[in-house]
Amino acid sequence: MTVSASAATAELAPSRLRRGATRTGAKIFIDAAFSVLLFVGTIVGVVALATLIWTIVDDGWPRLAADPAAFLTNYVSRLPARAGIKAALVGSAYLMLLTTLFCFPVGVGAAIYLEEFAPRNRVTNFVETNISNLAGVPSVVYGLLGLGVFARFLRLGPSLLAGALTLAVMSLPVIIVAAREAIRAVPESIRLGAYALGATKWQTVRRQVLPAALPGTLTGTILALSRAIGETAPLLVIGLPIVIFSLPNDVRDPVSALPLLIFDWTSRPQPAFAEAAAAASIVLLALLLAMNAVAIYLRNRYTIRW
């Protein structure tokens, strides 16, 4: 009894209490400092983004509002007042269409295989790790890949098909990761219920798992395409033309894109071309906001709450 009382007294000694209080105070201070640091970082990012958007709108809105129809339907010109974005706008639309056709079925199929059918071994773990790492690879690396494989090895040249394939390869890791997360979020009880009713593995995936995972998959796909539509480096590396005066009639024809045209106009010394670049940036931002709005709508409208 005496030993127990002595131990309790030692635990409640002022020196021990002070040391414990000091450690607790230090943790509280670190938590508060970290919260403040995160808040300041968020504010700095929001202010920088707002400043950038305001600068673009302030410089480009007068040029866009002066004659929006002519700006959207004219081809490029050496005269800034007559320059338009028709070829680049249509080229971006074609690139996104072909990119979606290439990367969506392949990405969803890869996600289904890795999540539902692939055996759990070292090879599968190696593939999954590399897919996750490829999602963070700089876009210029994919441009070098497209130049070496699609433009030169397959002899596609600087064409619409080469650009779409390059952007599709760049978007694939993001789509695969997003689709796998959406498939993984489907409860296991849904699969077990389908098996109990006599469904095969493929029937369960096709009729139960995939429809339930479709909202998250579509959201990830749209976000990946939102990144692809604003990329300049891959298209520059494979050699797509910046200035073009015709629309593509075939997938092997050359094509331009909005990021390429904005890059070219911002590099010219005339202030009028800088205003035209800002106006084209407004159009590109509107496309990005529309795509992100569709992603948010699909996620909120069709997500199933388990």
- What is the CATH fold-level name of the largest domain? MetI-like fold
Q: How is the main sheet built?
A: none
CATH architectural group of the largest domain: Orthogonal Bundle
Silhouette: globular
Q: If you compute it from the alpha carbons, what radius of gyration comes out, rounded to the nearest whole angstrom?
A: 27 Å
Number of continuous helical runs: 12
The helicity comes to over 70%
CATH superfamily of the largest domain: MetI-like
Amino-to-carboxy terminus distance: 55 Å
How many domain units?
A: 2
Extended strand count: 0
Describe the structure.
This protein folds into two domains: 2-66; 73-302, Orthogonal Bundle (MetI-like fold), CATH 1.10.3720. The model is unreliable at 12-17 (pLDDT under 50). The protein has helices at 2-11, 14-66, 68-73, 86-117, 122-134, 139-153, 160-184, 188-196, 201-229, 233-238, 258-266, 271-302. Helix 11 packs antiparallel against helix 12. It is built from twelve helices and no strands. It starts with a helix and ends with a helix. It has 306 residues and is mainly α.
Summarize the structure.
Helix content is 78%, strand content 0%. The chain is mainly alpha-helical and 306 residues long.
